[in-house]
Amino acid sequence: MPDFVFSPPPVIAVPVVGTDALFPVRRIYCVGRNYLEHIREMGGEERDPPFFFQKPTDAIVRSGGDVPYPPITEDFQHEIELVLAIGTGGANIVAAEAARHVFGLAVGIDLTRRDVQINARKTGRPWEIGKSFDHSAPIGAIKPLDNALPTAGDIRLMVNGEMKQSGNIDQLIWNCEEIVSQLSTQYTLQAGDLIYTGTPAGVAALNAGDQVIGQIDSLPDVQIKIT
């Protein structure tokens, strides 16, 4: 056994539906601007291809957990997303072969310090600080993939019982297969990677005390409380 200078951090893992086994998380990738209506509400260019950014692995919050209201923001927003859990790695994956690399699916929330993100973007600085912070990647249990990747299915988010976001997976500009394929040209994907695939319109601010529920047809909910 190696002699570490301090104890290594615990492995971050997500429950898997139908088993006591856990899915160990390696990296978290997120797709920016992948629903047309969200691009419009954020004032982006509709023809731009999606881009990718990352969150730290320990940003994961399991369903049922609490999310502390983060510092240095006054506009803390939710983004409901379908998450792809990679089970078999690879590079330069052909879109038609993407499904065999995906272990399962989950419901995730990309939490965002919107004001911080926008200010960084205006000043030409990286806006990682608006996206990649503590507790910013809540996720529900992962459901193993039955066969093909989904091409449709209702996706929605409610805050204190009020619907805030509502869309359908068929509104993805770049579908699940294309996302895996494109990302694999930029990074070699590995088992344990998670891909948050983008959010529909309706992103809005959260406040301390809010109860948040994210849902996608046939997948376990993700539920969090803002504290």
From TrEMBL:
Q: What class of enzyme is it?
A: hydrolase
The superkingdom listed in its UniProt entry is Bacteria
Q: Per the database record, which ranges form the Fumarylacetoacetase-like C-terminal domain?
A: 28-222
**UniProt KW Metal-binding keyword:** yes
Reported EC number(s) for this entry are 3.7.1.20
This entry's Gene Ontology molecular function terms read: acetylpyruvate hydrolase activity; fumarylpyruvate hydrolase activity; metal ion binding
Report keywords, A-Z: Hydrolase, Metal-binding, Pyruvate
Q: Output this protein's name.
A: Fumarylpyruvate hydrolase
